[in-house]
Design goal:
The protein is an alpha/beta fold. The protein has a single domain, classed as Rossmann fold (3-Layer(aba) Sandwich), CATH 3.40.50.1000. It is about 35% helix and about 25% strand. The protein has seven helices and ten strands. The protein has a six-stranded parallel β-sheet. Strand 9, helix 5 (about 125-130) and strand 10 (about 130-135) form a beta-alpha-beta unit. The longest helix has 12 residues, at about 75-90.
């Protein structure tokens, strides 16, 4: 996806990187509709889920989807997430998260989307992200309808 955001830059987005708990899943469980939308996005992007896997449910939830799952350490979580985004080429990444351990990932990615879900959002994530949305569905809509990103992020 090519996207030009006035006074910000032009991006070629190839990667979508999602936090799992609190972003895609609530209490370790992901809705079937979210999984279906992720599978659709994986047809156009390299989709990754990077998580400390607090509830131990991510591998089973994403088994057989072709979506990359990266389990990170709880001790270095924020650094591992940032390093992963950098390894993909941060300028081609949209990252999605909600927690403090997502803040560096959100800041490093070309576009960082903070997702509000019932588990809450950390203030650190809100300060490091570029955009705040009310749900994971709204977050995924930004990728499907990128003019929304342009409208929200242009200066």
């Amino acid at each position: 996806m090519k996207i030009a955001i006035p006074e910000r830059g032009e991006y070629v987005i190839r990667h979508l990187v999602f936090d799992y708990n609190g972003t895609l899943a609530v209490n370790g469980e992901m809705e079937e509709a979210v999984l279906s939308r992720m599978a659709d996005l994986a047809g156009s992007f390299h989709v990754s889920v990077i998580t400390a896997d607090t509830y131990g449910t991510v591998a089973e939830a994403l088994r057989g989807t072709g979506i990359d799952v990266k389990i990170i350490s709880k001790a270095r979580g924020s650094l591992d997430k940032r390093d992963y985004v950098e390894s993909l080429g941060a300028g081609g990444v949209i990252a999605f998260g909600n927690g403090s351990n997502d803040a560096l990932m959100l800041e490093t990615a070309a576009i960082g989307v903070v997702v509000m879900n019932p588990e809450g959002v950390s203030l650190e994530a809100m300060l490091k992200g570029d955009l705040l949305v009310n749900s994971i569905h709204e977050a995924m809509d930004l990728v499907v309808k990128p003019d929304r990103l342009v409208a929200d992020l242009r200066r």
